[in-house]
Amino acid sequence: MGCIYFASISCSHADIIVDNTAPLNQQPKVTAHLEKRKMCSVQNAHCQGGTFTTVNIVAPDANGLSHNKYKRFNNAIGKGHNELILNNTLADSTERVGNPHLTDKPARVILNEVTSNQPSQLYGLLSVAGRTAHVIIANPSGITCDGCRFNNTGHVTLTTGVPVLHGGELLGYDVNRGVIHIEKNGLKHNDDPYTFLDLFANRLKVNGEIRSRDIIAIIGKHAVGFAKSDETVAIRSIGGFSNDYRKAVNVDVSQLGGMYSNRIFIKTSGGSVLNKGTIDSDLVVNISSSFSIRNNNGTISSHKVKLKSEGFIDNRQGQIKSQRQDLPSHVNAKENFAIRLVGRNIFNKEGGIYANSGNISIQATDTVGNVQGAIKSNSTVGPANISIKSKAVNNFMGKIITSSNIAINTGHLKNNHGKIVSIFGQVDLSYKKVTDMSGVIHAGLEVNRTVKPLLTNSHRGWSHF
């Protein structure tokens, strides 16, 4: 098995090289043909006729897994004009040229494993011919996507992990190294109404847009279990991490980068999440980090936003927004939250935390700092409560405003020229110590104070209307 070429296409042009040291039943056959120039949709230097590379994948096992090994797996020539085709068509198909390896059944999962030290460059369209399948590209040396697109594959997994198999069954991936780069031309996987995208790597750098229906990004050193589209992904952390490693940025979304999806789940281990771009989802954004989450001049937006960090959450001149509209007042407690932030320290410096409808919950082990920032929930119909719980709360020239109720439970409360305002509801304050209360607290109904010993303020600025 190996490469077959037509129209004088070189192996480097096709840019797919089969691993000829792999078992024969893991060596696909690669063919390439050159589209006639008169058929070329765009005439330019790249397009002397488009290059179409077809991979006749190996026959699947009893579990429907087709395991294909390569020394090189690229789609990098003639950006926007090449197409890489994984042929999942039965040999006797009358609709298109069949895959001679598939005499019994098509594959349900197509695993493309790169065994060399060469990263994969994905710049064009990858399509599955025949029956749709879950496409996996596994390259521990890294994957760069710059204008990559996927067609007829509802589920795509890009990983720098090493596939783990037992008895021919794919159990998951051991991720120890490797970076997935999404460059300025982005990644598009939303042509179909139901699409799922997995990104499993030690690091993820996003300089372009990622678009898919559901996105799961598990970043850091993990053992990640194989899962179908409707199954929960099992995760086990690998190894202990040094302090220097924990300070590394595992997920880096630049100002030009972004994720756009129906649901977005991001989990990092051993490093932080840095967003300077846009993370936007229709239903839910759920980000979990073992070190920190920094939303610096970035936007995180969805119906539900949940950020959880074992270290700090820093919303510095950023926007964390819930776009939910008009939740009914009777909705159950599990569904009524719009934004939930959990961390050791949570800082909102000149940033905005906004909910159109639904509750905002902020819980910090040590400190919540709202420095010239705004925390607002605006609904006049459904739930719009704001609750803050922390050892210390510092509202320095900040605004905490809602149409409903505010509850602050803290050991030490500061409201230095800040505003804590409930327009129609009540404000419940529970604290041990209060200092520097030069700000204003208003409540449409009443202000309730549960004061424990050690009170040191002059009550300046407190009012009730």
Automatic annotation (TrEMBL):
<dbReference type="InterPro" id="IPR011050">
    <property type="entry name" value="Pectin_lyase_fold/virulence"/>
</dbReference>
<dbReference type="InterPro" id="IPR012334">
    <property type="entry name" value="Pectin_lyas_fold"/>
</dbReference>
<feature type="domain" description="Filamentous haemagglutinin FhaB/tRNA nuclease CdiA-like TPS">
    <location>
        <begin position="49"/>
        <end position="168"/>
    </location>
</feature>
<protein>
    <submittedName>
        <fullName>Filamentous hemagglutinin N-terminal domain-containing protein</fullName>
    </submittedName>
</protein>
<dbReference type="InterPro" id="IPR008638">
    <property type="entry name" value="FhaB/CdiA-like_TPS"/>
</dbReference>
<dbReference type="Pfam" id="PF05860">
    <property type="entry name" value="TPS"/>
</dbReference>
